[in-house]
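Hey all, sorry for the wall of text incoming. These are the two entities for the joint prediction.
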Amino acid sequence: MNKYIRTSLAGLLTSTMITGAAFAAGTHPETGEALADDQTFTYRILDEHSSVDPQVVEDVSGAEIVRDLFEGLMNQDEDGNLVPGVATSYTTNDTKDVYTFTLRDDAKWSNGDPVTAGDFVFAWKRAVDPALSSPYAWFMELMSIENASEIIAGDKPVDDLGVKAIDDHTLEVTLSAPLPYFAQMTTHSTTFPAPQKVIEEFGDAWTKPENIVSNGAYVLTEHLPQERSVRERNENYWDNDNTIIDKVVALVINDENVALTRYLAGELDRTEVPAGQFPRLQKEHPEEAISFPRLCNYYYTFNLSDGGPEAFKDPNVRQALSLAVDRKIITENIMAGGQPQAYTFAPAATAGFDVPDVEMASMSQAERDELAKELLAAAGYGPDNPLSFEMVYNTSEAHKKVAVALSQMWKQKLGVNAELANMEWKIFLEERGNQNFDLARGAWCGDYNEASTFLDLLQSDSGYNDGKYNNARVDELLSEAKTSDDAAPLYTEVERIIAQETPVIPIYHYAGVYMMDSDVGNWPVNNVEQNWYSKNLYKVAE
Amino acid sequence: MLAYIVRRLFMAVPTILLLIVASFFLMHFAPGGPFTSERPLPPAVLANIEARYGLDQPLWKQLWDYLYNIVVHFDFGPSFKFKDRDVNDIIAQGFPISLTYGSLSFLVATTVGVALGIAAAIKHNSWIDYFAVGLGIAAQALPNFIMGPILILTFTLWLGWLPGGGWNGGQWPYLIMPVIALATSYMGSIARITRSSMLEVLNSNFIRTARAKGLPTRTVIWRHALKPTLLPVVSYLGPVFVYVLTGSVFVDIYFSTGGLGQAYVGSALSRDYAVLLGVTILYGVLTVLVNLLTDLAYAWFDPKIRY
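and here's what came out:
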């Protein structure tokens, strides 16, 4: 086995060990800022979380809580880089299909029991167990763990999963295919350890605050569904001495405007900024209104399936519609939260992704409009034969504003009649998934920080390819990228093809637009996946 | 009377059963299911989940199992969305909250509404009348989804007197805004109905007789006019009581109270079948009971009615 221990990981580990303890009413050990006496971080969540069981949780706000309560093999730092979690280091073989993780010996559960390799084995088997039927079982398949697919399908027993505890502090994982970025995937909540004894004792009720035992920097102390959940410092956490925030409170506030009011009244340290309000808030609270790029895109997809409209089979029509979209108006006047305009499918913020020079991006809007008119005329549409279609989006004020703007742009510039239709979320998904649409809204947030998480949507056999775009060269490039050491040029070529053929109309890429109390220190604005850990935050004295 | 109550309760059973069956099929016929998502689940994963919740069974079997579990185990099933809790948990947690602020709103709306209505009728065409009518119309024109944000802006942001939301075990600072938001529009309607009913009663012959024999006005109002005045009000109050409990979704959304209204609407949107059905049944039973109580109250208010 060819060992190459990540020396950078070991280096980071020692640097975090040097820092001292007892911060309350003191100063920050690195920045020297005076710390507030009350180290409580309170933030708003849109909706009640699905679960705090690491193998069961399936929503973003739930995963945020789970990341505080539990700790996996690896964590991410403020910039999204991999840093040690329960594992101090890992090795892999030449073919990158066997990974061996060394676990720290001072990691403990909140009840004082040591965290062992066996806890990970239990958790990972649990994740694929048909009896638990985790909605995130597919993540273990994505990780290519040996026999995961067969176990999920019920063809093999759970114990055949390619994961084993060599001893209490050594975990060995066998993969069914080489995966260069396997370690990155262990920052995902599905892979976090689970306390076997507690789960066996309490069953489904193990996640209640009175029963739960966890190994992260915090423990769950209170949960009032649809109202709040509270997590407090875990005294048994191995790095408790370096944790500054004592208490984290997540408040469920469904209405974003009410949340903003409560933020302004001082009840919250963080909340989302409703669409269009960022410029005003930035003027009034320049220290607190923040915007940074996120790993998500917003687009419209053409229905290119056999049942789709004939007009959209012509790339000229698709390109004309894309060209006529004035993205500046949408990002600056409608969203107004610092969202980047999109001319490619994957956001520029994606790691290792070189944004290609697509022609459209360098043209002025007047030039684009001119070209759009020519292309549409060439396709045979004009005043005598106007193009008409229906565009669907899921019911929401912001989506409606964008859809109205798009249809107006097309109407004024090209004489196109786009009829708007909105649908309730589940119906929308059903209709879009069954290709019952002409043009449909879409948005995608990356599952991991790599361009394939976006571009795979355009692979012909992807379950997420609702527009049924089918290009053999794109498929070939994407499958080549899976095993390539340098996939960036391949992704660039895919984007070039997409820009030419326009199976989708990229409109903008998301920004994280927040009101964040200026007391909150170290919010990871550079972590595009927004995987934040309360243990890395602190509050400065006012 | 007792026989009447027993008969009504017996009649409620087929009503509720019909409600369950109709809701069950309507729910299943709505496009999309609990596990329809933007990231469609791989077939094997979906099959495991459906097997776990019995969604792979034919519909009639699912309905039968559902009814069987309710009758035999009093188990209303699991939540598909909130995996750490089942329907019994969700109702046990949310219903007391809805009931608390709902009952308080009902009490406030009724007492203030009736008092305003009576005052307006007695002092007909005086400034009190105009004030009460004006207040009633204003209150009615402000539904709770308008009142909610206005109250929060005023009392939380500008004055800083009250917390902007939450429940905290129902402490009074957390109760004030939800109760006001929910009570106002019903209060307006109750005041209006009371006023017109009282005016009608005051003009009727038996009141004229009472006045003619020299009874003081106070006695005329309290002893003779009040009961018949309240009869139309009571028939309005029955549905209002159910509305303040079921229609509380806006209160839950704006004040994060954690009541059942939000769970009800949320479960419909996420196709959380068992939660949706469980809350529907609860509301159905509540409606039947409240209707029965209203009918019984008639007999007290109007001696002509006998069961």
